[in-house]
UniProtKB/TrEMBL annotation, chain A:
Belongs to the ABC transporter superfamily. SMART domains: AAA. GO terms for biological process: carbohydrate transport; glycerol-3-phosphate transmembrane transport; glycerophosphodiester transmembrane transport. This is Carbohydrate ABC transporter ATP-binding protein, CUT1 family (TC 3.A.1.1.-). It comes from Celeribacter neptunius.
From TrEMBL, chain B:
The chain crosses the membrane at residues 23-44, 95-116, 123-139, 159-180, 201-224, 268-289. Part of the ABC transporter complex UgpBAEC involved in sn-glycerol-3-phosphate (G3P) import. Probably responsible for the translocation of the substrate across the membrane. This is sn-glycerol-3-phosphate transport system permease protein UgpE. The keyword DNA repair does not apply. It comes from Celeribacter neptunius. It is a multi-pass membrane protein. PROSITE patterns: ABC_TM1 (PS50928). Its main location: membrane. InterPro entries: MetI-like, MetI-like_sf. Residues 91-284 form the ABC transmembrane type-1 domain. The complex is composed of two ATP-binding proteins (UgpC), two transmembrane proteins (UgpA and UgpE) and a solute-binding protein (UgpB). One of its GO terms (cellular component) is plasma membrane.
Amino acid sequence: MAKVTLDNVRKVYPNGVEAVTPASFDIKDGEFTVLVGPSGCGKSTLLRMIAGLEEITDGALTIGDRVVNDLDPADRDIAMVFQNYALYPHMTVRKNIAYGLKNRKTPKEVIEKKVAEAAKMLNLEEYLDRKPSQLSGGQRQRVAMGRAIVRDPSLFLFDEPLSNLDAKLRNQMRIEIKALQRRLGVTSIYVTHDQVEAMTMADRIIVLNGGKIEQIGTPSEIYHNPASTFVASFMGAPPMNLVAAELTDETLFFAGLQLPMKTDYRGPVTLGLRPEDLHIDPYGPLAMEVELIEELGAHRLLHGQIEDQRLTVHLSKETEVTTGPLRLSCHPTSLCLFHPQTGERMDCNPKVQSLSARKPQEQHS
Amino acid sequence: MADITSSLAAPARSTRRFRWSTLADHAILITGSLFMLLPLLVLLQTASTPDIETMKYGPGLYFGDQLDDNFRKAMFEASGFSGQNTGLSMFKNSLILGLGFAFGKIVIGMMAAYAIVYFRMRFATMAFWLIFTTLLLPLEVRILPSYEITQKLGLLNTYTGLIVPLIASATATFFFRQFFRSVPEELVEAARIDGAGPVKFFIDILVPLSQTMIAAMFIIMFVYGWNQYLWPTMITTEEGMYTLVRGIKQIVQVLEGNEIPQYGRANMLAIIAVIPPVAIVIFFQSWFVKGLTESDK
């Protein structure tokens, strides 16, 4: 168990491409951190640098109390689970799990004991003498986990471990991995491009884009207070609605919405609204033309336009709706404002707590 | 080979409805097999007939009763002056050449391919293409300098001299390189995290993974080594070092004088010379196809 510190860790490939711009963050002992971002954002490179599979161009990486920049992967006291499992195809499950221990000259009895323990923990006992090719995807993933567990590393690294599994199995394995990590209390770094995995598993999320860290925070911080339009649109399904609005004279204008704001900024802004923060209000300021209703059982998604800007609204299953015109309202506190060019979050708060001029009391439901 | 093709075709559609096309297919296959078997049958016929009859009538249609006698002569009687080149000793020499050749080529080829694929070296690609171009330069092109070096090293009439100058193999290197490149990158990384160094990774992971490839290479290289003629002819001057393939020629040549050539004995030796490669192909057959076509990952 250990804490991990990155101090301006940077990766530049020989061809001059900067895959990871200087990144600094701490991961606390026992914390489950998820690196999330679209493909090519540098999340895997970052993980591979931590693993020692990729050289660190600049900066210092500390695992526990040691700076490990120049250590071999085997000496960093880490274990890694790969996307395609990377099991040794010619070895039985037992040998696959034991291989790392064998290379470290662990006594035979200890190896046997640890393999048995890991197999029990992962429900692999009856498969120990099979070859990986005789196992299903989920079982193979478990073997890969077993290989990581038996070594008692101070850090687990996961490189998109679930993306080769089908949706149902993925949900199940997600829970298993999380539960296992809780039980073992090992510091973990998990790379994924799936924001659902990130939200559900992480203690803390690090959102990456184009080799740069966009935001670090708990899932709820990331979701409710995105630091940029990128984070806002990447996290959440459906993503946050981003529409063009205008700030003048300390007032925000968007369609029929007028909201006094504490700010000196004037000019166009990007307004962010979570689909579930919008609700039906016959007297609401926003007039939406509903074009399509997605029925998802537990809830519904309305897709439509407000003054030529596309929006999605998340409604509970009780609310009856039809396509056509609809009036909406929202909580002023749930709005996010972003700079229209840089996409960065603008720090400005509404002066009022509720919106509708005519029937303010309805907004607090 | 003939056996393999016909046995593959037979069970597929021999039952049920009769079709003329099936008959035609089989007719072609059987005719082809017989055609290819014919030289072997002639060998067998000559080996079983007394030499005088062969001399008088040429190859006949009937098998004789000399098979046993000729076999004994071929295996245990020396044909040269020194009395050392019995069939048995030639067989042994051939076996050593074939095995050493196959073994050495596989080991060298694998290690060369390992270096080229897995280590970041300057000019690795160039080194590979350099090796590859040697495919265009067979032994015959470099035989004089090779002979000179071997001779100066005092390796004439030794197994080392027979095997080592031929051991570098572009073919094996090439096949192993292609195979290693198809091994997933993650396997290397997993092994690195598991604490396997370069040597351990090679022995624990790559060699077992290459099993089928090794088997396929073994067949090709063994047969290639076993059938070497020119090089052993140049390197071995002592009769005790003769290999089978060159020994057969020796018999027919030496005894062409006043005496009747020993057709039966020479042909018997030819049959003996054919057996090990055939046996190896039959034994490794399934591996062979697997190794060259699919990769087990």
